[in-house]
Every structure is written in C-alpha cells, then in structure tokens.
Amino acid sequence: MRQKFYFILFGFTIVLLFATNLPVSAQILNIERSRVERDTVNYLTGKAGLNFSMFNRNAGKNNPNNYLQLTFTGDLAYISAEHSYLLLNYYNYLLVNYDSREQRNTVASTGYAHFRANLLRRRMLSYELFTQVQADKARGLEWRTLAGAGIRLALLRNKDLSLYLGTGLMHEHEEWEVPGQEERLQIANLPKSTNYISARAQFNQHVGADAIAYYQVGYDSGIDKFRNRISGDLSLNFKLNSRLSFRTNFNCTYEDEPIVPVTRFVYAVSNGLQLQF
C-alpha cells in the first residue's frame, strides 16, 4: 500500500514539474517553515533543497528558446532554552537561450538572506528581531535591505496545529531599475509597519502545511501616499522518509504603489525535494 502511495505521488510530482516550470520570484518568505518544536534544547537543525531544470520551447531554428534554471533553498535554526535563531536563504537563477549562437541570452536571478531572532520564544507573547537583504533582477529590484523588531503572539499552540500573530516596525531601503532606463535607479527609504498571521498544521505523519500572510505599509512623502504591500505563502509538505520530503509551494505579492511601474501582482508556483538534517 505504501509503495502504491509513493508511486502515485511520484507521478503527481512529474506532472506538476512540467506544469509549473516557472521562474520563481520569491518576494515573500515563510518564516514558519523553518520553526521547529522539540522537547530538547540547544540544538542546530536545518533544511536544504536544490532544484535543477533544463528545457526548450523552440519556435524554429531562428527562434530558439532554451531554458536553464537552478533553485537553492537553505534554512538553519538554532534553538536554545529561551530563544531561537533562524537563517533563511533562497536563490533562483534562470538563463534563457543559453546555447544561442546569436548571443541573445537573458539572465534573471532572484534571492534573499533573512535572519530572525525570537526572544523568550516559549511565552505566549515573545519578541522578534530581524534583518534581510534581497535582490530580484527579473523585476528590476537591484537591492532591498530591511531591519526591524516586533512582538509575536501565540494564539494556538499544540502538536498538530499552531496559529500566531506578529506586528512590528521596520526600515526598508530599496533600489529599483527604472524600466527602459537601465542606467537609472529609483531609491526609496521608508519606515514601515509590518504585520503577519501564520499557521502550521500537521494532518498526519506524512502530510503537513504551513502558511503566512503579511501586510506592510509605509507613508512616502515623495508621492504623498501610503505604499501598501500584501503577500502570502503556502507550502504543502509530503514526507517521503525521515529525512526527505516533497514540497509544493505557492507565493504571491501585491503592491498598490510600486516604486517603479512594474507588475503589481506577482506569483510563483514551485515544486521540489527537501532534505532535513
């Protein structure tokens, strides 16, 4: 019965990999994905994933469309008796027309590194410190840095289900490439309110899910308006054995007043294997 389950899951994985082989634009990160709960303390744990794909969508010899994509995720967590520390990393590299003789190569890369400390983590009301660096060349985001602090409220916390609320303040620095003017950068520095609601559910010993939704807002005196950002991330995890899992992830972001005129709503669907150590 278990072999049949894995065979069906494998077939489902192959279908999804072909159906959702999209460039990933991870504007949003799921901090719950790397939080862990154990009875022991003072330990280091982590997760790592690597996806590689290469395919073509050629429209004749004179119009080649060859794709090479590499995605890496790596999360580390250190849990002490009172506090927890998370380091989350993501990188996606996409090369289009990598073997074109006409040298019409297009490169799009995106990634981030995020560090977060949860102080007095066992309490219903705990405290968080965080910082992040990020780039998204595909959208024209040359650089984004942020740092802030906030509080985290545990609304529900048990073995199979948890629910949290978080709120805080941060400062965000962004440098965007102006569309059609690659030599020019639009720079913004904004203090922002950052808020999230997150949940984690374990349906059975093989299947679990975690989700998070953010709302971030800051007033920009340059345009005399508030800039609002809403984003969300949902992950489904299928455990194959004690170390290896298959993960399907969906994330999206909407900005009502982007710094430069880019697509306001972006989303990504990704699938891959995850190794836990």
Q: What is the topology?
A:
Blueprint: H1 2-19, E1 43-56, E2 66-79, E3 84-96, E4 106-119, E5 125-136, E6 141-157, E7 161-178, E8 181-202, E9 207-220, E10 225-239, E11 244-255, E12 265-276
Write up this protein.
The structure is a single chain. This protein is mainly beta and 277 residues long. It is 6% helix and 64% strand. A twelve-stranded antiparallel barrel has the order 1-2-3-4-5-6-7-8-9-10-11-12. The longest helix has 18 residues, at 2-19. The radius of gyration is 20 Å and the shape is globular.
Count of individual helical segments: 1
What are the secondary-structure elements, in order, as H or E?
Answer: HEEEEEEEEEEEE
Major sheet: size, sense and barrel closure? 12 strands, antiparallel, barrel
Number of extended strands? 12
**Over the alpha carbons, how many angstroms does the gyration radius reach?**
20 Å
